[in-house]
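Q: What changes when zinc ion is included in the input?
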Amino acid sequence: MSQTNTTGKRKIHWLNFFFLTGTLVAAAVGVPLYLWVFGWDWYQFALFVLFFILTGLSITLGYHRLYSHHAFEAAWPIKLFTILFGAATFQGTVIEWASDHRYHHKFVDRDGDPYDVTKGFFHAHIGWLLYGENRNNADNVRDLLADPFASWQKRYYVPLAVGMGIVLPTLLGFLYKGPVGALGGFLIPGIARIVFVQHMTFFINSLCHMVGRRPYSIHCTCRDSWVLALVTFGEGYHNFHHAFAYDYRNGVLPWQWDPTKWAIWILHRLGLVWNLKKARPEAILLARLHVLGETLQAKLAQWRQKAARLPVSFQNGLFQVESTLARWKDYWSNPEKRKELSEEILKTAVRELERADAFLRRLDRVRWASTG
Ligand SMILES: [Zn+2]
Ligand SMILES: [Zn+2]
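A: The predicted holo structure follows.
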């Protein structure tokens, strides 16, 4: 529900407004000023990177994949660590965060989705926080309300956030270089790092629903982008994530850049996390087959109208795409038929449809070359 006052204007959430704009301005002005006056400092830079990784991973591995989705189970040191360093990002308690996030998955792209991207980039990125709209109730996080770590964090959230996110980096700066080091610690691994981690998370809600491809689901705006994965600890493979939210991986292919999945895997080898959930390979291939089938069918319908104007070689290519699609149509459009498919047959089907898709992409480029 939107919060509006009697004049119909949107109501600003002043605490969020001052915090989000204040930290942004302090980082943008304070950090260059500090570096100008006191010079470049490798210690502060290293502390920034360390805090960025520890707090960023606490969001992606902890708040997101562990607490919001239960993609794996973790020993208490991991739960405690991600609770402490997650608080240091000032993104709210894990209970609030997970509640918003679960509503996002449930109602994606429509009312009820707190960061619904169909309301625009600004709303999905930060507007929903500035206006404090769409705050849902906590019915969907009863499990976390009963979790000792999450409820402990809820009780002591403000001292934990300030202590871990601001006091700790300031103190580490002070131990290194007295008051000047403390100021640097406050500004660089403190405030600037908070801004960076916040906008990294915000990009997952905004750009990851706008930029990239949709290989596993075309029923939501969520997209896979390796560029965004680079700056979001692997969360940029957001299309796969929405299709298989319970999977501990977002970059499902082994080479896809997903440091969060690698961190989970290493913790698993160390015996600190277990019961890593993975989607069945057949389910992933079926999702791929379904997307390829639907998109190819739509593209083919467009090309059919122009087929007569194409050179014969392209017409033959289109005919082949059509027969490939017809060969597999029953399998991607008929749920009963799908059950008959083995992993091997699915792989063949996906490979054939990907080849057909590549041909149509080539055709698109030729058209651009000839018209442009
Ligand atoms: Zn999303
Ligand atoms: Zn999620």
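Observations recorded in class: Residues 64, 68-69, 101, 105, 241, 245 surround zinc ion (ligand 2) (CB under 6 Å).
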